[in-house]
Amino acid sequence: MNDESSATGAGRVTAFGLGGLGVLAFSLSLPATRVAVQQLDPWFVAFGRAVGAAALAGVYLGLTAAPRPTRGQWWRLSVVALGVVVGFPLFTSLALTTQTSAHGAVVVTVLPAMTAVFAVLRAGERPPPVFWLAGAGGVAAVLTFLVATGAVRGGLTAADLYLVAAVVLCGLGYAEGGALARTLGGARTICWALLLSLPVSLPVTVLAAAAHPPRADARGWSAYAYVSVVSMFLGFFAWYAGLARGGIARVGQIQLAQPILTLIWSALLLGEPVTPAALIAAAVVLTCVALAQRTRAPRLRAGARTRGATPSRIGSGR
Question: Which end of the chain is more exposed for a tag (fewer CB within 10 A), N or C?
Fold first, then answer.
């Protein structure tokens, strides 16, 4: 697929829908991680989920007879792996051993902005000023809601620094993966990134399991299964496809709804309080997302459209 498909009409609706499915899948990641790390070692949760997802990725690539990435694509896949396979899972797992998932949602609020910044730096997109204004309005609405509902308490902690690192690396991985998915495809992008990470994720998982033998009840293992199968694997099928079709910066703004969804999941699964103000904040956020979606498709910097392999060369191995 190429970037032209993202401009208008059905392509935009499809991109928005795929992005929404990805955000819905990811919105449960923090609460599920919070549940898992209460019973399992955070290093085991962070890297074990990648090992489990890599096994599924190997099956998928085998069944679809996926061609190997080109040399240039391997390098870009390493950036994806650093951001979303290693960085975000590790730092959120470490943070959520001491912080609530509701608190984590506060920091995740800046993820759409971080994704847009890396869309400019890594994917060559140039969103119009109206886009930045709509995105800033959405961030302000979510932050106002989180402050008003008491999700922000206390000063800066080590957990906050972990969450900031997670968001920066995740924004990088989202932008790089979305750009790479234009030629490699969303599913294959995350699958190859997972397999590329195995030389790191597998040994760390084995060492973590040896140091702290994993023991958890059904709830803990269910949460671990979710972050492995959905957060680390299936969610990216829709997410990267949406970013590639609709523009990384623009579709990335759908993430503005993720903190509110995370708070709802936190209330349902963990008993963390959520006030009716969520409905007002959700309405404002959705309005800002709609405004961002109605801006023209971001222009690409010269040469960015052809970064990486063209579709005809994906299987050549060159």
Answer: C
